[in-house]
Write a structure and sequence with these properties.
It contains 4 helices and 56 strands. By secondary structure, the protein is mainly beta. The strands form 8 sheets. The protein has an 18-stranded parallel β-sheet. The protein has a 17-stranded parallel β-sheet, with no helix packed on it. It has a 7-stranded parallel β-sheet with strand order 31-34-37-40-43-46-49, with no helix packed on it. The protein is rod-shaped and about 150 Å long.
């Protein structure tokens, strides 16, 4: 007669067979010899036990291992949330069950398996975030930790050498208030880093989908920190929000986001790769006391469409030591610090295209020590000193930048390069475009307006500026080249300056086919062995249109230099002017005035002469 295993075991026991009692879990899948009361015996294999039997003390050898362990111990390694009542159907709120599983796991130093995608709601005073992150393990499903409305964040989260990127932290509130008194540990004492979240030594922090905020500008507590090959990801706002609001970051911290030692941070708004962000915006690290972003030692940050405004300290965005930052189309207005809104330093690269750095207390953009900075199509209104500064062999592309009310628009020094074609620098009080120390600037099609003491475009100390088709007005000096420097301003418009063009100390300026109007003192001023090319140029409204002295030369062949209130051309102290086919008529004194051993070629020209043509005198000669 056939029996199932349990019934057969009962029968054996009831017949007084040995061994006495039920077969246990240790007997599963074993062949046992059973001896009846009458002395006969037979073999039996137990394939199943009675439902509900306690097998916790039975042993098992895991596949691939060698040690037998009790099932109770083996199952305790990882606590399953379903053992505590979690349903996992996407409808039931499993928060209490999951938190119970975590609380139990903490008592036995075990981990918790999340076996379905779910959300844990965190209430004030309940299981804290560190407990969750220290116990849950990835089981193929995403976990969301939601901070319910009204939660005040009062713990410091440190993740080390662990990947928690499968966890996302969200909030019911637009901002989560941080209790500053709970943020106390220096995770990097050398640099005094005291963050809300820290990822160290290859860690991946949870994905951040909420915006933290200190109640006021803290001077001692930071936002987020990742170091030594660690990373963090922030969530952007929803696509096509009617009124897009920043979803993640940290406001009012001392330092908002700190990224050290080959680490990374990222937040990419929706649709950005198609050049259409769909009203989605990135992180918010505004109101920081000292550096909204601090990126160092080969690290990388991708934070386009972010908000880093109203920060203090030396810089708002500081990128140093071969690091990279993408802050495309961000807002960094009203930086109140001592250096610059955006700094790229020591071999670093920053993309800040279409970013607004207006109202910076000092500089808008600064690249130094062989660094690069992309500031194309940016806005830098009312900055304290410079809109753009490149120094120490650095490069800045600020093509089509707009800057109004900033003392100096673009300044390149010490072997640096600036691309400022199409730039607009209005109401400059110092310099519009300035290159010095063997630097170079392209300012083609640029527009510069200034004031009574402004130099529009200034090339100094072996530098060069290409200002073809540019426009300079309202300045003391429109174009100024000094100390063996050059400016090419062919085809430009120069108006309402005291000096239209000023070249001195072995410098060269080219303004061929250019219009100079109402340059009150001089249209062209060349001195100390300098050269000006002004072929077919038209100059009106100056006292003296062309003023040349001290061994300098001007080529104004075919130019129109009429109606000067003093001289059309004044050439003195061994200088030379080519005025072939030039019109100098209408001058109040002389059309051409040659003095002190100078030479003027006036062939086919019109206008009065101070010397008899083709006669050598102590004042020189005018050939005609």
């Amino acid at each position: 007669m056939a029996y199932d295993a349990i019934t057969y075991a009962d029968k054996v026991e009831n017949n007084g067979a040995t061994p006495a009692g039920r077969f246990g879990a240790d007997d599963l899948n074993e062949i046992k010899t059973v001896t009846n009361a009458n002395g006969s015996s037979f073999d039996v294999r137990i394939d199943a036990l009675e439902t509900g039997a306690d097998v916790s003390q039975s042993t098992v050898v895991s596949a691939g291992s060698t040690e037998a362990r009790k099932l109770a111990d083996r199952f305790a390694d990882t606590v399953n949330v379903k053992d505590f009542g979690a349903v996992g159907d996407g409808v039931a709120d499993d928060t209490v069950a999951i938190q119970a599983a975590i609380a139990y796991a903490l008592t036995i130093n075990a981990t918790v398996a999340i076996t379905f995608p779910t959300t844990i709601n965190i209430y004030s005073g309940l299981v804290n975030l560190n407990d969750i992150l220290n116990t849950v393990v990835y089981s193929g499903y995403k976990l969301t930790i939601n901070l319910v409305s009204g939660v005040v964040f009062n713990e410091q989260v440190v993740v080390e050498a662990k990947d928690m990127g499968w966890v996302t932290i969200t909030s019911d509130d637009a901002t989560v208030t941080v209790d500053e008194t709970a943020i106390t540990t220096e995770v990097l004492p050398k640099d005094n880093i005291v963050p809300i979240f820290a990822g160290l030594n290859g860690a991946v922090l949870p994905t951040i989908g909420c915006l933290f905020q200190y109640t006021s500008n803290t001077t001692a507590k930071d936002g987020f920190f990742v170091s030594h090959n660690s990373s963090v990801r922030f969530l952007p706002s929803a696509y096509n929000d009617a009124v897009p609001t920043h979803l993640s970051g940290c406001r009012n911290a001392r330092r908002g986001m700190v990224v050290f030692n080959n680490s990374s941070a990222e937040c990419t708004p929706h649709g950005l790769t198609q050049d259409d962000s769909g009203n989605s915006v990135g992180v918010d690290f505004s109101g920081c006391k000292n550096r909204a972003l601090n990126i160092q030692h080969g690290s990388r940050v991708t934070f386009p469409l972010g908000d880093f405004s109203s920060s203090e300290g030396d810089n708002a965005v500081y990128v140093i030591w071969n690091s990279f930052a993408d802050i495309y189309k961000s807002t960094i207005v009203s930086h109140a610090g001592s250096n610059a809104a955006v700094v790229s330093r020591d071999g670093s690269v920053v993309c800040a295209r279409e970013t607004d750095v207006s109202n910076a207390a000092h500089r808008g953009f600064h690249a130094l020590h062989a660094s690069m900075l992309d500031a194309r199509l940016t806005v830098a209104n009312n900055c304290g000193t410079y809109a753009v500064l490149a120094s120490s062999a650095s490069t800045i592309d600020c093509k089509e930048i707009v800057s109004d009310g900033t003392p100096t628009g673009a300044h390149a020094s010490d072997g640096s390069t600036i691309e400022a074609s199409g730039a607009t620098f209005t109401n400059c009080s110092s310099r519009g475009v300035y290159a010095r120390g063997a630097s170079s600037i392209s300012a083609m099609d640029a527009v510069v307006t200034g004031g009574a003491s402004t130099t529009g475009i200034f090339s100094q100390d072996s530098s060069q500026i290409d200002a073809t088709d540019s426009s300079v007005s309202g300045c003391l000096k429109g174009y100024y080249a000094e100390n063996v420097s050059t400016i090419n301003a062919d085809g430009s418009t120069i108006a309402n300056n005291d000096y239209g063009v000023f070249a001195e100390k072995g410098s060269t300026i080219s303004i061929n086919i250019t219009n100079l109007t109402n340059c009150v003192e001089y249209g062209i001023y060349a001195t100390e062995q300098s050269t000006v090319q002004a072929k077919s140029t038209v100059i009106t409204g100056s006292k003296t249109h062309v003023f040349v002295l001290r061994g300098s030369s001007v080529n104004c062949r075919g130019a129109t230099l009429t109606g000067a209130t003093q001289s059309g051309i004044y050439c003195s102290e061994g200088s030379k002017v080519n005025a072939q086919a030039t019109d100098t008529s209408g001058a109040s004194t002389y059309g051409i005035d040659c003095q002190r051993g100078s030479f003027v070629n006036a062939g086919s020209s019109t206008g009065t002469l101070n010397l008899t043509a083709n006669t050598l005198t102590v004042d020189g000669v005018i050939f005609k």
